[in-house]
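Please, structure for the following, as tokens.
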Amino acid sequence: MDLGLTKDSARELEQAVQCCEPVEGFTHNYYRYPARFSPRFSRIAISIFSESGDVVFDPFMGGGTTLVEAFMLGRFGIGTDISSLAAFLANIKVTPQVDEHLQLFSDWLTTLPRKLNLHRYISHPAEWISKGYLRNINCRKTWRIRKLIEMALLELEELPSSQLKKLARCLVLRTGQWALDCRERIPSAEAFREQMMAFGKLIIKGASEMNECLNQIEQTGIKGHFPPLCLNRSVIGIEEEWKTGRLPPPRLILTSPPYPGVHVLYHRWQVEGRRETPAPFWIAECMDGNGAAYYTFGDRKQIKLNGYFRMLRQSFQSLSKISDPKTCLVQLVSFSEPEWQLQEYLQALEDSGFSEVKTPYFCSADGRVWRNVPNRKFYASHRPAIHSAKEVMLIHRYAGTRHEDDDIF
């Protein structure tokens, strides 16, 4: 079966996988979601493996990179994620902002710094505090940042629409992440204000770029081009929702699932070393209440990762139920111990009806594309965590049953 990968497009895809350029463009920099992949990789993969109007599905959408690029390329994007924080971020990143709203946001942003005054009295969010959402950001070094965040959240209530308030929450999230997450030194209040202004301008610029792209798509005459659908739910059982919505099979499933044996904090910031805080959920006005294992298919220290691979099989079995022979599955995955985990992973996909597709066009000997990930900020279950700093791109097609010619395009 031809998946549309020629020698030239394979080289283009391989270069996109290896891309180390800073993430930029459209709404991608609204927030730095952990383990996100390059928009360039997403864009190239969508262009190669799907066409205008096709359904592109990301079952572990995270910060919504796949969905943004699918939207900008005239596809219908659908994403799921069990994290309410991910759903919040993905939704705001794929929601177009009209020019009038962006002007209101800009006006609000201009007046914000002088209102973030540490000498000003404010009431603290007692309910969120009582539930532990401000844990580990109320110490001597971080209290100033915490109070500035509290004041910014109070000020955004002055915005005239819920959509603009969400955009402002995204700004506070991005600035709070910059100030607190994995920082050796907590910045000053003045630096926080300046950075919030810089991120605000970046958000306006990204939203304007999205509007320009959507205007160009509209001029091409594409019909039925709608914003992506972002669902806060597990992919397990998605086939029932797919039936209800009468959706066609996805032409492309493009994703980066939880990594086996690799510690990724999708739901926390790390403050002053490894002290975790659920503050992002408070800022986004989302509920959490779950430990790390909830977001990563189970405890990474579990023997043979039995829980992980059980959840993985259930997820891809549901994906197989919404797929057809034209469905292509493209993933970026990292392993703490690839010597045995890669084979187990591939077996889980094969058991679910997905056959791996390789090509001699890639430079690596195994017909896959491997990449080194610079500045990775998470850890494997055993140190030194050298393997978790590598990712591999896996390409599969839905086959239902194994075919003899699945190894070559």
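The mean pLDDT is 90. The two ends are 7 Å apart (CA to CA).
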